[in-house]
Design goal:
Elements lengths: L1 H16 L2 H33 L7 H30 L4 H6 L1 H5 L6 H35 L6 H25 L2 H28 L2 H13 L2 H10 L4 H9 L15 H23 L4
């Protein structure tokens, strides 16, 4: 275990030396400042419009508008977190094999499985820091500016972290199997398939086409990242917004879900993450350097 923690510490040191942590902090501050400025302008416009009409600004329509703006912001945050999870680890095994870095590390009393798990642990902490900071910052910022806070913010942050950690584990697995370029192509294709599967499934749900819903189930089995986001999006929406979707017949929303996350999907995500790490260890143990 000490060697795994050593590799995690080395991973953090590399991130610091490459100013990756600083870039993450600057990106967090920049995005939050930009998005929350837009939220402030929008909310001021809503309040002024309500005053012009002689109406209160605590109407259901205002609540729905604020919840929608926050959900869109968290959708972007989720994408950024997933993107970071892929990019930080894209060349962590394959690139280091090509450069000869791993050969020098493995001459020390460090086993290959410790390298894989240590690198995942180090990057996992980095990704969790980013996702937690930026998602929490957006939630607190919107609450401060508009007074709106989603019903279950902790569940939202936890699920977004789970989705990012899943992609991180799959990226490290890809690094043991493919070159850096191939790994990137495979990961972004799988992620695109996951998102497309969610959209297709939403269309199938809206028009009641079982085949499309089956395709979505297949995409979840291949990579459940989009399903995790949809589960998180449910906890972002107040009852008023969920009721509005229901009354409008919008059962097939292409970006958010009006149903809580499926426990079986959550279980599959946990199993998937664990299998990706174990398979990465197994492949790396048998790969020639």
């Amino acid at each position: 275990m000490s060697q795994v923690l050593l590799m995690a510490r080395i991973t953090w040191q590399e991130a610091w030396s490459r100013r990756l942590v600083l870039a993450i902090l600057l990106l967090t501050v920049g995005f939050l400042g930009f998005y929350l400025l837009g939220v402030q302008f929008l909310d001021e416009r809503l309040r002024s419009r309500a005053a012009e009409l002689g109406r209160s600004d605590d109407l259901e329509g205002f609540l729905i508008a604020r919840a929608t703006v926050e959900t869109l912001g968290m959708y972007i945050v989720n994408f950024l977190g997933n993107l970071l999870a892929v990019l930080v680890a894209l060349s962590t095994i394959s690139g280091e094999i090509d450069s000869g870095t791993l050969q020098s590390i493995l001459t020390k009393p460090i086993r290959r499985y410790q390298v894989v798990l240590g690198k995942w642990l180090g990057f996992a902490a980095l990704v969790a820091l980013f996702v937690t900071l930026i998602s929490s910052g957006l939630l607190v910022g919107v609450k401060t500016l508009t007074g709106y806070l989603p019903p279950s913010p902790l569940e939202v942050v936890a699920l977004m972290n789970l989705g990012a950690q899943l992609l991180l584990a799959v990226t490290i697995l890809g690094g043991t199997l493919f070159s850096t370029l191939t790994n990137g192509v495979v990961l972004f294709t799988l992620y695109g398939l996951s998102v497309a599967g969610g959209i297709v499934g939403s269309i199938g749900q809206l028009f009641r086409v079982p085949l499309l819903e089956t395709l979505n189930a297949v995409s979840i089995a291949i990579l459940p990242s989009d399903a995790i986001w949809r589960g998180a999006s449910y906890y972002l929406q107040p009852a008023e917004l969920l009721n509005a979707f229901s009354e409008a017949g919008a059962r097939g929303n292409p970006f958010v879900s009006t149903a809580p996350p499926d426990p079986m999907v959550l279980l599959w995500t946990g199993v998937y993450l664990l299998l990706a790490l174990l398979l990465g260890v197994w492949v790396f143990n048998r790969r020639d350097l």
